[in-house]
Amino acid sequence: MQELEPVIGLEIHVELMTKTKLFCGCSVGFGAEPNSQTCPVCLGHPGSLPVLNKQAVEYAVKAGLALNCRIASTCKFDRKQYFYPDMSKNYQISQYDQPLCGEGYVDLEVDGKKKRIRIKRAHLEEDAGKLVHGSTAGGDVSLVDYNRSGVPLLEIVTEPDISSPAEARLFLTKLRNIIQYTGVSDCRMEEGSLRCDANISLRPRGTTELGTKTEIKNLNSFRAVERALAYEIERQTKVLAAGERVIQETRHWDEQAEVTRGMRSKEEAHDYRYFPDPNLLPLLVDQGWVERIRATLPELPDARKRRFMEELGLSDYDAEVLVAAKDVADYYEEVLKYYGDAKMAVNWVMVELMGLLRKEGLEITACPVSAENLGKLLVLQEKGTISGKMAKDIFAEMFSTGQDPETIVKEKGLSQISDAGVLAGLVDKVLAANPESVAAYRGGKDRALGYLVGQVMKETRGQANPQLVNQLLRERLDQPE
Q1: Distance CA 393, CA 395 (A)
Q2: 275 alpha-carbon distance from chain centroid
Q3: Residues paired with 320 in a beta bridge
Q4: Which three-class secondary structure state does DSSP give residue 138?
Q5: Taking Cα atoms as reference points, which of 457, 352, 344 lies closest to residue 395?
Q6: Which of 211, 266, 259 is nearest to 11 (CA)?
Q7: Contact between 168 and 147 (Cβ < 8 Å)
Q8: Domains contained in the chain, CATH given
């Protein structure tokens, strides 16, 4: 059988962080009581009329610009006809042939080379409600919560340019990062503000004709996207190897069993019977307004990474890790306002700080150590007021209590001892108490020095300047007997 290659395209739904819904004034707050954030408009009551949320359009334009999209001068809203229990109107207001954002792209680095993933379109639409499944004494039930109905979504559709499950995950990670930088969405998959459907087909490697695709739904994490695509590649390969044909259908990802299951035949555009929504006029987008929105774009991840490398001298890896989360990069730059060594600061942020945050399950926005206090701690270490080991202990105390480093050093008497006169006496005391180690060092065993350093540190409860202790010990030990 000829070797097959996957062809993958993604449909990403980003929930825009407006205060109200796309066509009414209902709140979009997450976690409210079911059906407490609804009105006749988002419930589709007869006679109710939609009014477009200008903030949602602005956010969509801002995201489109960040994704290198062409912003249309004119777009319109269409009715997409279908019946689901969570769609009370039996249609969804979306955009069909005239979307707000046209062709764009996202550049990835794959195996050391740049690869461009093209974006076909990004359009505004309203979200559906949510089905809640459960059990009662009378049996299994499905309930509908319409709080989410009408929440503004930006649907981003890629071209089928993605070549592997790992590449799909990389693209999603990069896309989420870009959107988060713009501030138009928090992109929290666990809260449903970023959702993804994946289309995948197989074809003989080296050919250009697309195979029959399936769509995978219910992908609520990057891990799920990657694993579902890997499973579907394996499934479709077996189907084709058996001489059978792949059926175009929508499949559901079963997270527990880690398999995809058929749901329904895959709909085409004509199945939805699109037509312009008669209650919403075509939208004329002023290009001067678009340029004013462009001027508000922040420094995006790729540009920030280049700056970190060129101006701060960070490695490609360190810069990539930092910019992968805007809040982390912001925190790091805030540290640099108080402490100037960029490379030392990045080590502390990426290793010490992120290690404790992961251990405690905290986001950096909830970090008890302010960037200013971390910068002050590193200044104390650089000045020799505290040692590197002491700095780590003090940092743990700062993380636990939220106190500033100067207060902790003062209250606990943790200043580093860098007085050569004080340490010289302790060095002589340790040498006198450990003649075997002294003889071992003078006999060529350098490791004995480490033991003697440890004994001096023990005498000072870790407060001695280790570099000075090393220097004094060598001076004493290298003297002729």
Answers
A1: 5
A2: 37
A3: none
A4: coil
A5: 352
A6: 266
A7: no
A8: 4-292 (no CATH), 301-412 (no CATH), 420-477 (1.10.10.410)
Largest CA distance in the chain: 103
Pair 211, 199: CB distance under 8 Å: no
Q: Could you give the CA distance from residue 207 to residue 329 in angstroms, rounded to a whole number?
A: 42
Contact 192, 148 (CB under 8 A): yes
DSSP 33: P
Provide DSSP, 296-357.
TPPPPHHHHHHHHHHHH---HHHHHHHHTSHHHHHHHHHHTTT---HHHHHHIIIIIIHHHH
Answer yes or no: are the C-beta atoms of 222 and 192 closer than 8 Å. no
Which token pair is 3? 């070797």
Place of tokens 């010289």: 424
Per-residue model confidence as pLDDT tens digits over 264-317: 776 666 778 899 999 999 999 999 999 999 999 999 999 999 999 999 999 999
pLDDT-based confidence at residue 158 (cuts at 50, 70, 90): very high
Average of per-residue pLDDT across 444-469: 74
Kindly report the number of other CB atoms within 10 A of residue 368's CB atom.
15
Q: Place 263 in a pLDDT band, splitting at 50, 70 and 90.
A: confident
pLDDT tens-place string over residues 174-192: 999 999 999 999 998 888 8
Contact 78, 95 (CB under 8 A): yes
Other CB atoms within a 10 A radius of the CB of residue 260 amount to: 25
**Which SS3 state, helix, strand or coil, does residue 190 take?**
helix
Least confident of 247-261, 276-290, 341-355, 413-427: 413-427
Of all residues in the chain, the percent with pLDDT exceeding 90 is: 70
* Residue type at position 217: K
Q: Mind listing the pLDDT tens digit for each residue in 1-60?
A: 679 999 999 999 999 999 999 999 999 998 899 999 999 999 999 999 999 999 999 999
SS3 (DSSP) at 451: helix
Q: How many CB atoms lie within 10 A of CB 256?
A: 5
Burial grade of 206 (CB within 10 A; 0-12, 13-18, 19 or more)? exposed
Report the candidate in 14, 362, 2 with the shortest Cα–Cα distance to residue 207.
Answer: 2
Q: Compute the distance between CA of residue 106 and CA of residue 171 in angstroms, rounded to an integer.
A: 8
Tokens, residue 259? 């398999």
Residue with tokens 């979504």: 153
The model carries a pTM of 0.84
Question: 3-class DSSP state for residue 54?
Answer: helix
